[in-house]
Amino acid sequence: MLAYPGAQMLDITGPLEVFARSARLLLEQGLRANSVYEVEVIAAQAGPVKTSSGVEILAARPLTAVQAPLDTLLVAGGVGSREALRSSLVLGFLRRMAPRVRRLASVCTGAFLLAEAGLLNGRRATTHWAYCAELAKRYPQVQVEPDPIFVRDGRIYTSAGVTAGMDLALGLVEEDLGRPLALAVARQLVLFLRRPGGQSQFSAQLAVQSAEREPLRDLQAWIADHPEADLGIERLARRVAMSPRHFARVFLREIGVTPAKFILQVRVEAARRRLEESRDDVEAVAASCGFRSAEVMRRAFLRTVRVSPSAYRSRFRCA
Description:
- The chain is of the alpha/beta class.
- It is built from 14 helices and 10 strands.
- The protein is 46% helix and 11% strand.
């Protein structure tokens, strides 16, 4: 893991813990005689590296002492990435090592370092949702995808913000050693749901702003808890003691989307979770999430997720 002053501590420790825990679990279960991963932090200079939280992490080796071959080289993100972008040592190291590692990956705004080194030109990539527009503007040769948790393009991987680095690491473990181990590690780390690459960075609630008025905030939460309910404008307006016309205007102004669009987002998100976690057939999932039929849900998925519910389940369902 390449670190630098001002790097986000969890960008560094989160993914490395996934790899270390995977190796330890295999040793404990007697499935390997030797560690399958050795993790190491490297930096421009060996020694303590102060992260953005003020906690120092020890870099074992300076970049000048790191030689190929390496298996996986990861680059952390954080507020210090802006300063690191001006480091000829860091950028030169990335350019030199990129063709000599099996895979190269970034966490959060670490994608800016890969882009500045020219390693993302002509490739798909992502970063923290708050910086996707800046990444796209600054590096027009990069195809920035603001939605996914992580993106793979050939040997290069980029992930969304902070904890998404752990999702990426779990995905890499799955590639190397299989899905059962990745899921076992996720359970040990108490990650509620291992989110595969391609899943959205946003929940329906996070993708929109919260209303200033308490009744509308409460209504947002109620809708998320009851996607199967009758969520017609008239009924929702009655819950907050407004006329339907006034309610629609206030909802759009405060939340940033129409009630209908917010409801669709909530229902699609609920259906995605059910498809991932349950054995219910598509018709049952559609009914439990408020869609009038499986065909209505299919059209909603194609419009928002860009795959059918069946295709989504085959890709993301937790075994």
